[in-house]
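Job type: complex structure
Entries:
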Amino acid sequence: MKAFLQGMHTVMRRELSAYFATPVAWVFIVIFTILAAAFTFYLGGFYQRGLADLEPFFRFHPWLYLFLVPALAMRLWAEERKSGTIELLLTLPITISQAIVGKFLAAWLFLGLALALTFPIWFTVNYLGDPDNGTILAAYLGSWLMAGAFLAIGSCLSALTRNQVVAFILAVVVSFGFLLSGLPLVLDAFRSWLPQGFVDGIANLSLISHFDAISRGVVDLRDLIFFGLVIGFWLMANLIILQLRKAD
Amino acid sequence: MIEARSLTRHYGDLVAVDGISFTVDTGQVLGFLGPNGAGKSTTMKILTGFLPPTSGTAVINGHDIINDSLAVRREIGYLPEGAPLYGEMSVQKFLQFVAHARGYRGSAANSKAGEAAERLNLGHVQHQRIDTLSKGYKRRVGLAQAVLHDPQVLILDEPTDGLDPNQKHEVRELISDMSENRIIVISTHILEEVDALCNRAMIIAGGKLVADDTPAGLIERSRYHNAVTLNVDDLQTAASILSNLPEAAKVEVRDNEITVFPEPGSHLLAAVNKVIAEHNWQVNTMRLEAGRLDEVFRTITSEVEQLEEAA
């Protein structure tokens, strides 16, 4: 276990420093925080609602992540393939799972940082009124977990190709499917011919419905487990893809 | 010690490596020669644990590459083809990353990274981003990364490919400095390199091992080995006289030079000297050929290609 953590930590540190050695980190953080604020105030009607909560802020996170997380995740493995560094990395005494988890955690921590940097909006809402800070904290947690799920999807799909654009598009499409699976648009299509149990199953896969549950302040263990399973599933798929075709 | 046991690798229908077996002992600098696509890189990728063999296996210092890949990777230093590096890192940060990955911690990691940089004369570019370095320096960083943990086995895939002649020379010097008490396996398609660096050479063609010898032994296989090349004033007459020598198997005239090829085991040079003295020729240049590695290489590898086409 200790050996696993050491290898993972080595990869994680390298990845994190790579974000900040390139414009990736700063561009991402600036765009993320600006878009999050713009959505809240213009689309979410933050002021018009007259309520002291961050519902209009969190409501757009799934849509923000839909494009921004694949943009962060697309380089995870596609870039290693393209530049050939995957051969360097995986012939060091580092296992594929250490590399996958290390890379994932680096990106996830980075997303956590970007999310944390939206703190002015939390201050704002506390200045304007008297919000339920427990709910807001829960929503932040839910948002971060959901970002992790998007990230795991993006990481896995990035391992399929050496082309980052392809990785990005694949990740957006698959993530979009996961987002929509809770909306009537998708569910109505299934409702007519599938038993209710299956329809519920599909609805349950939706990242939005689990995120909504947490962001209302209800931190249910089942929702946490759901995100854990989604992340675990996609990282496992990532592992299998790399084991089968790391040298392609 | 490296012991490869009938290594085979398929890519779909293509057989990239076809049942290669060999052993390499400490102190040997082994050159892998072969045309592009012969299976050199694939063999190296298998030995370093990056690619699993379709069948067969190899044992490196007692560790099996399939069942004990992590231990194998600890033993070896590897420079992949094209020396891929994380360009956005500084030389120092990159070498420290490799040291961490090799299990060194804290100050031990820093001093290992420092030593490796020192060894490859990278001291003055330590803080430079790797992607701003020249090709020659990048290659040195790749080598520094490979030797950082003082490995017993060093596998270098085309270490001088794409470098200018000075850089090539420099990298060769670095490699030969490191060759003591180690196993070094180098792949290349530059023949002079094998002669300059290696004490053993293997030619791979069509995924098969087709020759395994010392560089000198390979050169001796050349039809030019012990041939005599000379330039005299009257080429045609001289050529016809020389071709009558019992020691001469064949005479070729090309570019104002006559090359006389020896019958196996004959003392051609002495015989030619005698003829020159008898006829009192004005000899402008004359040399005894050692053999030509490129010619051996072409002969051996084209035989394989012809066999494959026939099959």
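Summary: Chain B has two domains: 2-220, 228-289. Chain B touches chain A through 28 residues (CB under 8 Å).
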